Amino acid sequence: MLSTISKTGAKNAKTFGLQCQRLSTICASRIPRGVQNKACLSGLNGFNGSASAGVKTVGLGEGSAGRRGYKTVQEQRSRYKSGPFSWTAGVLFLGAGAGLIFYFRYEKARMERKRIAEAAKGVGRPKVGGPFELLDHKGGKFSSEDMKGKYSLVYFGFTHCPDICPEELDKMAQMIDLINNSPTRTSSTPALLPIFITCDPARDTPAVLATYLAEFHPSIIGLTGTWEQIKDICKKYRVYFSTPEGVQKGQDYLVDHSIYFYLMDPEGDFVEAIGRQHSPEQAARIIQEHVGDWKR
Question: Which residues cross the membrane (predicted)?
Fold first, then answer.
């Protein structure tokens, strides 16, 4: 009978030892390397070596000293990676910072444009623009008062120009389309009024202007007048132009003139001159910036 009890006890001890080894393996696999609970492992090893001695260990989730603040290894790793400052908060912080930097730079550029525009109207600086009255390409009267309430883009040239004027009028047409089709344009945005003023009134009649400008853009308004009227408006806009002396009637000739677009605000004041170095996209952006600054 003692032999039977002894065999039964040995069998139970062997079974218990195998269970302890299995539990030890599970414990080691679930706890991250380097942070294993020594009390747990040493206790399990004690079970393996001296099951009959009744050594008690601290199991997973038992005891206040060995208790973890997380339920799974994944949760522990997640808390370790995120910490008190999460990635989401970091991205939001960086986004807000970038937005503030962009806003302050935009405001700085806007104030600089406003300062330049105000300086152009200041005392001691030559005034660009002024009152005038001419004929448009339809034969009707057109004056500086018709420019009020709109941004005006004024260009001086002549219809017999072989290269520069056609190139600049092509650019003007592209600028008009870029501005009119801009997604930022609203119903309250001041309209853009494109104007072509001839420096060659002897040949550029209203009918000639109408035929010539139709090749570029339908919204361009052509203006002409007498020699004295054209000379007066060119002087007011600081436009240089000259024609050869002693030209006979019907003889072909070229007119030398300044090559600029003059941007005028809705009050008829000069804002900025746009030169040949500006692409249509750059010129359109300059105009849109000034339009956006209007009355801000």
Answer: 85-106
Residues 66-72: contacts with CB under 8 Å, at least 24 apart:
66/37, 66/39, 66/40
**Residue entry with tokens 């804002």:** 271
What does the pLDDT look like over 268-290, one tens digit per residue? 999 999 999 999 999 999 999 88
Q: What is the DSSP string of 119-180?
A: HHTSTTSPP-----EEEETTS-EEEGGGGTTSEEEEEEE-TT-SSHHHHHHHHHHHHHHHHH
More confident residue, 217 or 80: 217
The answer to whether position 77 is within a domain reads no
The reply to whether 115 and 138 lie within a common domain is no
Query: Which residues fall in the annotated binding site?
Result: 161, 165, 257
Q: Could you list the residues known to form a binding site for Cu cation, using ranges.
A: 161, 165, 257
Full domain range(s) for residue 33: 2-72
154 belongs to a structural domain:
yes
Based on the domain organization, do 95 and 232 belong to the same domain?
A: no
Contacts of residue 29, Cβ cutoff 8 Å, sequence gap at least 6: none
Q: Are residues 116 and 144 in the same domain?
A: no
